[in-house]
Amino acid sequence: MQANYPSLGTENQSPYQVESRREILALLRGFKEKGQLISMIINNGGEAFITSVLAIDDTNNQLIVDSAPDNMANQRVIESPTVFFDGLLDKISIQFSSSKLQKTQFEGRPALQLPVPNSVIRLQRRENYRINTPVSTPIRCLIPVETDGTLERAKFSLVDISCGGVALLDDRRLLDMTVGKVYDDCEVDLPTIGVIETQLEIRNSQELTLLNGKTTRRVGCAFKDLSNRTLTTVQRYIMKLERERNARLTGI
């Protein structure tokens, strides 16, 4: 039966569904070997925790992932009718779900286990390929927001960027989360490339609990009426990040 993932809406997923066990195990091992983080989502997208793949027990058909930050959060995950997982691996969004999570221990610390999924969704939207932005040198985005009756150009850190938009962290909960809300006169500072000016339209939001227990809000925004010149600038920056990423992987 085809699963419905909160981030995909009504999009037809069948062309992207992977049911080969061998391929599924390879994807999960990829997350573990590359240390890629995964969002663990409950309450139909209302709550999310950052996790990672700790081990794949092929013999017992079990996937072991990092636990949520505290016992209450873990209990909510275990009791959730469906838990969705969404992570980015080598340009591709990998998504799956489970309703059978249990508490376990891994190397002496709390963890969660679930059956290896029978199928996963693998999405690669080439036209809007998104790439994670550097953690060491965060990209800053300035958005005019009203706080206490005054207009403030608030700073936000980007999580990823594509030619279609950005995802950013709203730690102070300053942005209006109404889907379709448009912010004018926004600026995104792309290191070594330059500052782009754009409108940003709110598309989605998600409360995240990080591994250190800190909470933040992840906000997905679409570029609105991006000029061809600005689009080219964004493409140049994405290509730059991709070159740097490939250089790190190859050791050049």
UniProtKB/TrEMBL annotation:
Cited Pfam families: PilZ, PilZN
Domain PilZ: 124-239
Coiled-coil intervals, chain numbering: none
GO MF, any single term: cyclic-di-GMP binding
Occurrences of domain Type III secretion system flagellar brake protein YcgR PilZN (ranges): 16-122
GO biological process, one term: bacterial-type flagellum-dependent cell motility
Alphabetical UniProt keywords: Bacterial flagellum, c-di-GMP, Cell projection, Cilium, Flagellum, Nucleotide-binding
Matches recorded under InterPro entries: PilZ_domain, Split_barrel_FMN-bd, T3SS_YcgR, T3SS_YcgR_PilZN
Subcellular location: Bacterial flagellum basal body
Domain of life: Bacteria
Annotated GO CC locations: bacterial-type flagellum basal body
Chief localization: other
Keyword Manganese among record annotations: no
Gene3D superfamilies, sorted: Electron Transport, Fmn-binding Protein, Chain A, predicted glycosyltransferase like domains
Family designation: Belongs to the YcgR family.
Subunit architecture: Monomer. Interacts with the flagellar basal bodies.
Function summary: Acts as a flagellar brake, regulating swimming and swarming in a bis-(3'-5') cyclic diguanylic acid (c-di-GMP)-dependent manner. Binds 1 c-di-GMP dimer per subunit. Increasing levels of c-di-GMP lead to decreased motility.
Name assigned to this protein: Flagellar brake protein YcgR
Annotated source species: Undibacterium nitidum
